[in-house]
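Changelog excerpt

This revision adds worked examples to the README so contributors can see how folded entries look when concatenated. The first example is reproduced verbatim below.
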Amino acid sequence: MRYVEGDDAARPPYLVESAENALRILLWLRNSPRLRVTEVSDRLGVARSTAHRLLSTLTYLGFLRHDPIKRVYLPGEVLVEIALASTDHQELRRASMPHIERLANAQGWTVHLSVLEGTDIRFIDGCESPRPVRVSVRIGSRSPAHSTSSGKVLLAALPPHHLATLYPEDPPKVTEHTIADLGELEQQLEEVRRLGYATNLGENEVGLHAASVPIHHDGRIVAAIAAAHPTMVEAPSDFSEIVDQLRATAATIEGQLERQADDGARR
């Protein structure tokens, strides 16, 4: 029986109260991406010291992370990993991560693996650049597809009528550089199909540029791999070098996916 807040009739008779309170905190993150000690104390009906201990325990175990500046608690890496493990992307992540890490460390760019979810992309895995000034990984988060290099790669793989269904109106502006006209977006996606890669020049976040290529499996594009760099670090005059590295990495991942599929078929 699924937990519904306020439904005491469905409450099992042998709940462990401390465990119940900790799990309720995690459930609240579905609707509120950040929690404060006072809020948790009030909603649980416990002292602030008790709420603080619960939050500290969840933070220690990686389910939450604490922002000491804003004094809020946010979803932690473990929570994101559990969520991603429950999706159908485990094989893709397993095939990709060793090669993503190798690329990030060799080239000094932050590398992300993304899939399309409606008009957004979701970052399902990634590895940060080893450089002091770098783009942070955003595993589990979403961004508008039309303003990201990975999103453009994935949108370019869709049939034209599907794109019109996704965007009955012009896509929204994210920054001053974002394409916010459907006709212009369609033209750029045609260019992406021709070139086989996409770029993002401050379109999703001012001060960040990125390039992305597709990952194919079973005759279709299943994901995109992108490399991102802050523009304060030598913005390239062209993306040819990193695109070549992304293509090589994507080809390696595609080979690994094939091997994993063959291994699974033999079991």
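The second example, added in the same revision:
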Amino acid sequence: MSPFRNRCHVPPSRPLPPSLRVRFTRSDSGGNFVRLSHGGHVISETRSSGPRFFRSRASMRVVAITGGVACGKSGFARRFLDLAEIGTAVRIDCDLVVREIYGEGSFGETLMAEAEATGHTIRGSGGELDRLKLRELVFDNSRFRGRIESLVHPLVYQRVSAQLNGLSDRVRMALIEVPLLYEVNFPLRRDFDLVVAASREEQRRRLLGDRGLEAQLAERILKAQMPLAEKIQRCDLLVWNDGSLEAFEAQITHLYKRCETIFT
């Protein structure tokens, strides 16, 4: 069980200006206390009784980044890396690893055979894997989704572990984006879990507007995911990305400053 307890308050519906306030103090019980607020409105509070460390070497911290679709997981990781000195932090995106695996011919054939076993086809006109059909079937058919996850995630874990083991000693922090961290109990050894979250309405808006998905597919994707409230309850650190870019970046900058001693 994580030693952190999170209490998240939904921020105002209007975008938050860059005057978002972040305060870090020590609580009476000796743990850490972080409060994010604007105009007297508390956006989120995080209390901790102390960190949990499971790093593979004493000089590096491993942070698992998860959250909901269209919440800004990659945006968080990219901005954090921009703040860090070159070579002291790395980002590993499990979605990119999955795409690499899907692109390998032998695994593509396995996916198509699994789909056909359920009475569906995800073959393109030329016999190749149709990524769009695959995505639709994954979100439409929970049995197929579970089968694919059981096949692909051990491979993802192997490749992520290999990348971590091959990092330079200069690296002080590894940010691992794992969208299904809790859903598949991804066995990554890490120091902290960080959730990037947003309201359901904002997720839907981004899926439709920014990614150009059809409304029906967007709804299927949202319904197939673990509720964000459950992820928030399980995480160590929470970044709420429902307002302005300035508010989002203020939280990232705050967390980076709390981590600066790691990079020195």
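Reviewer comment on example two: The CA atoms of residues 122 and 133 lie 5 Å apart. The chain has nine helices and nine strands.
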